[in-house]
Amino acid sequence: MIKFVFKWMFRLFLLGVIALVVLVVAFVLLLDPALRLIAQHNIRAQTGMDVEIGSFHLGLTEPVVTIKDLKIYNSPEFGGAPFLNIPEIHVEYDREALARRQLHLTLLRFNLGELDIVKNEAGQTNIFSLGLGLPAVAKPADANASLAEFKKRTGLAFEQIDVLNVSVGKAKYIDLKNPRNNREQKIGIDNFPVRHVKSMADLSGLAVLLALRSGDFFGSLVAPAPTK
Fold first, then answer.
1. How far, in Å, CA of 69 to CA of 82, rounded?
2. Averaged confidence pLDDT in the chain
3. Where do the domains of the chain lie?
4. Of 12, 60, 61, 180, which is most buried by a Cβ count within 10 Å?
């Protein structure tokens, strides 16, 4: 259960960081309103979902990127309801490392307000349709594969996050075919700090806390192992 939450959370986090890195590298001289539109387009292209961003700020005199009120909506087959509500993603990065094509974040503040998991009338679940659903058993090569994919998509080698500050509000499960299965779980993680993040293993404490706060909410989403 903890391994599932751990790997799924890392994939989701990695998707957001990749989108930010692409914007910082490719559009560093553009104005904030234009960057907001570009960010919406890039996330929509990667996920196939509608996106709204309240504000986007890229510091020109300081290495800072801040996205506020990011909302990603499910596709029509999953009811078109919100999927992710992220009040803030704040990134402070090392410019010298970026010049060496390395990603070194001095601070990453990630506030996930709400996650809505939807099962449609055909029995499909939105997180699995995005490729975010993972088997319960972790493989040793998964961490290296994720970092290799990150470098392939961004051209940057991941170095370290000095301070990762995470907040998580609540999660909802919505069954479009049988609303009696609907449920909500308050997670209530507020500004949990993780220092010196270099690999997935450094997120294990956060994963354990998330698993404890969410109870069996995510456990019911884990696909059972195939039987012979």
1. 12
2. 78
3. 2-221
4. 12
φ, ψ for residue 170, nearest 5 deg: -150, 165
Interatomic CA distance for residues 36 and 176, integer angstroms: 32
Q: Which residues pair with 167 in a beta bridge?
A: 111
| Bridge partners, 85 (sequence order) | 71, 114
**Centroid of chain to Cα 63:** 21
- Do the Cβ atoms of 174 and 119 come closer than 8 Å? yes
Burial label for 161, CB within 10 Å (0-12, 13-18, 19+), is: buried
Q: What is the CA radius of gyration of the chain?
A: 18
User: Which band of pLDDT confidence, cut at 50, 70 and 90, is reported for residue 29?
Assistant: very low
Beta bridge partners of 185: 171
Q: Are 212 and 154 in contact (CB under 8 A)?
A: no
- Spatial CA neighbour of 91 closest among 100, 80, 79, 104: 104
Q: What residue has token string 């890229």?
A: 58
pTM summary value:
0.75
Cβ-contact 194, 164 below 8 angstroms = yes
Tell me what pLDDT residue 135 has. Answer: 39
Range 88-99 burial, b when 16+ CB lie within 10 A, else e: bbbbbbbeebbe
3-class DSSP assignment, residue 71: strand
